[in-house]
Amino acid sequence: MNTTTKVEIRSVRKSFGDKLVLDDVSLQVGEHEVVCLIGASGSGKSTLLRCINLLEFIDDGQILLDDGHGSLVDISEPGLDPDPVRRRIGMVFQSYNLFPHMSVLRNITLGPTKVRKAERSVADASALELLDRFGLADKAGAYPDQLSGGQQQRVAIVRALAMQPELMLLDEVTAALDPVLVGEVLNVIRDMRGQGMTMILATHEMGFAREISDLVCFLKDGVILEAAPPAKLFTAPDRPETAEFLQRVIASGRL
Amino acid sequence: MTNNDEGAGIVSAPSRVPGPSTRREQWLRRQRRKAIIIAVVSTVVTFGGLAWLITSSSGWPKVKTIFFNGERFKEDFPEILGYLWVDVKLFLQTAPFILMWGLVIALCRNTRNPVLFPLRAFAAVYTDFFRGVPIILTIYLVGFGIPKLGLLEGDFHFLGFGGNWTSPYLWGPIALVLAYSAYVAEVFRSGIEGVHESQRAGARSLGLSHSQTMRHVVLPQAARRVVPPLMNDLLSLQKDVALLSVLGIIEVFRRATSIKDLTGNFTPLVAAAVIFLALTIPETRLVDWYTNRQRRRTGGSQIV
To answer: Measured between alpha carbons, how far is B236 from A109 in angstroms, rounded to an integer?
Structure first.
């Protein structure tokens, strides 16, 4: 594929205390590409996403982000203000992390009005437009706890999208959902892909990973053991660990 | 009587469309009636017994004339009631400063920036000190000690209180603010820390700064959590303003004691107690009502 690189991770190392969570992780994601991170819980998927969004400081290595003019800038540079970087990266969490004291609309417009200093009316209008696009137009005035899990997660995605991010990080966004609600959230992600959003997803939905990604990375104990296009990784993985993981997933009926 | 007040052992019958009641419903109704009768009888026996015990004691006639003297009560009550406004005013003047200063102390303890370490250390020492010293001592030390320094002289005018810089009407309330803000700061701090880390992550991921996250996401949620404990602290404050009488401020308690000293009869103190109760019981009910409403509203939506 001949695309420009959006984000590049170079030899990133991260540990919590004595435990090494990410060990020499490298990954390159092109513009408009979708990359899925798969692997057992505790393999480092979430930590990698949190590191890219600078919610965690890395111990070693580099994280580079396209500056919008085709050159890569090290965003993991110690001492760099993380706020302008986070503004450009959207993140969606497993447990939604919506603000319970704000209406859906205020949840979505908080970032645009406070961080990008957009006019309230302009922010409201574009938030309503986004809500409408994802079938949530009638929920603008509702509070998060009045919504189903699937609706809350869609609102969380809209909240991240409202900042017009260049990159979206989705951290097991369907893992907390009732199985019947997973589909509506996956549809939103398909829609974002259709719009050309660059995305990195940590997911347990193997069928979806296979369908949506350009590249699938299998993580084990903080190492990317194998990275390959889904057609290859899911059918003829190189590493026996990958095959074993997929075998276990199939046995549990999730593929 | 609401459902919550019925106590253990009383089962409320399910409401249904009127019609011939089932055997189970009849049994439930009988149980319920029985429970009410038992509760009434036990209450009457307990309090009746206590009343009999007290009034039949050998010292009762004396206690009655000294503490529960009807004539003295009639004469002293209106006189003491006239000073109620002083207690209310002291409360109204200190409460806003306690809340503001308490929040400042709590925010100081929450700072992360190493440059602000002195603030964090100050806040920690401050809360330890004022929570550790009996309030009455703080009032003595501040109320009598600081004016003795002679640093400030002349008159001041501030929020309805005017007078000399050495006035107890200035240093008394300041002592209360110092002491109470330490408690209030701890309430605020626990409220701030009670907001789940994921809320901060959610806000920071949008690009909000630490202070924006604090202001728009953490503090509004903390505020809801801290209202019931804060209201309890303010309730104690309403009573503790009486402690300022040691500085010579004449209010309900002080006036009652001076009448007692004049007449040798303790009834004015009972009158003072009645006045404080009339003030605090409605406040207590308000706190309870608010706490219950809060619990109902946030019930089941605490997962973030």
So the answer is: 41
Question: Angle of helix B84-109 relative to helix B267-298, nearest 10 degrees?
Answer: 40
- Establish if B220 touches chain A: CB-CB under 8 angstroms: yes
pLDDT digits (tens, 9 = 90+) for A82-136: 999 999 999 999 999 999 999 999 999 999 999 999 999 999 999 999 999 888 9
Residue B183 and residue B98: Cα distance in Å, rounded? 9
Question: What is the distance between the alpha carbons of residues B100 and A173, in angstroms, rounded to a whole number?
Answer: 40
The per-residue pLDDT for B297 is: 62
| Residue A125 forms part of a structural domain | no
B64 lies in a domain? no
Q: What are the chain A neighbours of B201 within 8 Å (beta carbons)? A: 50, 55, 93, 97
Q: Residue B297, Cβ neighbours under 10 Å: how many?
A: 10
In a domain, B302, yes or no: no
d(CA A51, CA A25): 11
**Cα end-to-end span (Å), chain A:** 27
- The whole-number average pLDDT for the span A33-58 is 93
Tell me what the mean pLDDT of segment A182-191 comes to: 90
Averaged pLDDT for residues A217-232: 94
- Whole domain around residue A221: which residue ranges? 5-91+168-251
Q: How many domains does chain A fold into?
A: 1
Distance in angstroms (rounded) separating the CA atoms of residues B251 and B87: 6
**ipTM greater than 0.85:** yes
Residues in A touching B304 (Cβ below 8 Å): 95, 97-98, 100
CATH code of B152's domain: 1.10.3720.10
Q: How far is the alpha carbon of A207 from chain B, nearest alpha carbon, in Å?
A: 28
- Asked if the Cβ–Cβ distance from A110 to B208 is below 8 Å, we say yes
Q: Is residue A179 in a domain?
A: yes
The last residue of one of the domains, among B14, B37, B56, is B56
Q: Which of B212, B227, B249 is the last residue of a domain?
A: B249
| Amino acid B123: pLDDT | 93
Q: Give the pLDDT of residue B302.
A: 41
Nearest neighbour of B301 by CB, restricted to A50, A95, A100? A100
Contacts (Cβ under 8 Å, ≥6 apart) of B225: B191, B194, B195
Q: Taking the alpha carbons of B157, B163, B166, B167 in that order, is the dihedral positive or negative?
A: negative
> Looking at beta carbons, which residues of chain A come within 8 Å of B206?
86-87, 110-111, 115, 159-160, 163
Number of domains in chain B: 2
C-alpha closest to that of B242 among B231, B232, B256: B256
- Give yes or no for a contact between B273 and B212, defined as CB atoms under 8 angstroms apart: no
CB contact under 8 A, A145 and B212: no
Predicted TM-score of the model (pTM): 0.75
Mean pLDDT by 10 residues, chain B (304 residues): 44 58 89 94 95 91 89 89 91 94 91 85 94 94 86 71 77 93 94 92 93 93 87 91 91 92 91 91 86 65 39
